[in-house]
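Running low. Invent one:
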Amino acid sequence: MLSRKKVNLVLDEMEKVFPDAWCELIFQNTFELLIAVMLSARTTDKAVNKVTPSLFEKYPAPQDFLTVPVEELMQDISTIGLYRNKAKHIQECCRQLLELHQGKVPDTFEELTQLAGVGRKTANVVLSVGFNKPAIAVDTHVERVSKCFKIVPEHATPLEVEHILMKKVPKERWGQTHHLLIFWGRYRCKRSSKLKHCQCCQDLMSMIKDKE
């Protein structure tokens, strides 16, 4: 496994390639961010961004999502994967926001994960991007790239990936790390189930070795 020093060298090189790596979801406030991240599960950001402009125009606040039958909301997001369950979760989440948080998105991990449809990844994205709090969200890209670079063991679960990254990366760099790994996985890393390491990742590791 890569040492803490080498992990940060990898991140340094990634930052040179993607200096503007950041959340690609389109949102105007923490509530829109929360809904967008909930919609993004097992769906691309591009697909979500095609839906959210009209969605947020129709439902600008939590109470607005509760003014229509869930079937209508399902239709509004029908191009998104798992739209039936997501529509149900969104309405229940909005109900909880109104009943428990005066319609505002909470800024703690514990409160966020108590909301319907909000797991660790969603909560960490909202904390990091929406509230600028240190957090590492592990999605498929983060997990795949972390394993490709041997930052974490091949058998590591998403939770283990999160904890290992938190140990190897300085806290002030957690949020940036999430986006760098996503951008690398989205636009560079071509690792598949048949390949333990992709050529792009191998090339970057060679660059690091040359500097040692």
About this structure: The chain has twelve helices and no strands. The radius of gyration is 18 Å. Residues 9 and 208 are 7 Å apart (CA to CA). The chain has a mean pLDDT of 94.
